[in-house]
């Protein structure tokens, strides 16, 4: 199991990697499929972003792009991308936020529905504990007392900010890197995160329903998140 310092460093490393893709690379890259299985750890536990098969290169001054072919992994896809086919840097920010909350809690995000049963997703659970002023209750039970409460709460707050419904309310990756590297910056207060459900039995139904509602003829290539951050191992 990863201790808190290792998890905190992994969060920071992933943030810097995405920031590089968005701002520092010669080409502006939107990954579009950020999830734990696409982040590898080297022998020094330094994260490396991998699998750029779905990545898109966009113009430096381009804020948003649309596609008729929605691809990615449920549980990490931003609502505007899953429902409208609209993706941007803020889509990657949303995926990063989900990963942050998974790293902290040791649980995966689901939010699946089946007949007669709805499972509470991780985002909903974290928001409920944050709203009730009990954020530390989501911390992975395997983490012992050797952790910084300030760092944990800050990372939870960052995670919630990243999964806001409105993309404009999500921070940029450069802001996130600054938040993680300084204890002096005051973070905005998050609002209720984006919450939407999809069917385990028919993962295409969600995108098809959205396509019908928004006149998008979307073909889908989707997978369901079955990854646990507690199994985040070096390769």
Structural descriptors:
alpha/beta; single chain; 235 residues; three-stranded mixed sheet; two-stranded antiparallel sheet
Task: Describe the protein's architecture and organization.
By secondary structure, this protein is an alpha/beta fold. The protein has one domain: Transferase(Phosphotransferase) domain 1 (Transferase(Phosphotransferase), domain 1). It is 37% helix and 15% strand. A 3-stranded mixed sheet has the order 9-8-10. Strands 1-4 form a two-stranded antiparallel ribbon. A two-stranded antiparallel sheet has the order 2-3. Residues 113-118 and 199-233 have low confidence and may be disordered.
The biggest sheet amounts to: 3 strands, mixed
Overall pLDDT: 84
CATH class assignment: Mainly Alpha
CA-based shape: globular
Give unreliable regions as ranges: 113-118, 199-233
- Helicity level: 25-40%
Radius of gyration: 17 Å
Beta fraction of the residues? Answer: 5-15%
CATH architecture: Orthogonal Bundle
Query: What letter string, H or E per element, gives the SSE order?
Result: HEEEEEEHEHEEHHHEHE
Number of domains: 1
CATH homologous superfamily heading: Transferase(Phosphotransferase) domain 1
How many β strands by DSSP?
11
Widest sheet, order of strands: 9-8-10
| Terminal Cα span | 15 Å
* Broad structural category: alpha/beta
């Amino acid at each position: 199991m990863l201790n808190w310092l290792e998890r905190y460093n992994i969060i920071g490393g992933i943030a810097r990697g995405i920031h590089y893709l968005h701002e520092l690379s010669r080409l502006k890259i939107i990954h579009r499929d950020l999830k734990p299985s696409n982040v590898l750890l080297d022998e020094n536990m330094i994260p490396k972003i991998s699998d750029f098969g779905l990545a898109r290169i966009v113009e430096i001054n381009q804020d948003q792009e649309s596609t008729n072919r929605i691809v990615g992994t449920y549980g990490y896809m931003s609502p505007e991308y899953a429902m409208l086919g609209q993706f941007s840097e803020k889509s990657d920010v949303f995926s990063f936020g989900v990963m942050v909350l998974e790293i902290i809690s040791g649980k995966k995000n689901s939010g699946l529905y089946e007949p007669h049963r709805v499972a509470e997703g991780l985002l909903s659970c974290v928001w409920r504990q944050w709203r009730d002023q009990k954020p530390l209750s989501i911390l992975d039970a395997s983490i012992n007392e050797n952790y910084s409460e300030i760092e944990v709460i800050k990372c939870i707050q960052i995670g919630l900010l990243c999964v806001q419904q409105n993309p404009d309310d999500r921070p940029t990756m450069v802001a996130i890197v600054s938040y993680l590297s300084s204890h002096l910056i005051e973070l905005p207060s998050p609002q209720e995160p984006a919450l939407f459900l999809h069917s385990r039995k028919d993962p295409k139904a969600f995108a098809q329903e959205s396509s019908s509602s928004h006149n998008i003829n979307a073909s889908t290539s989707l997978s369901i998140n079955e990854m646990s951050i507690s199994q985040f191992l070096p390769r």
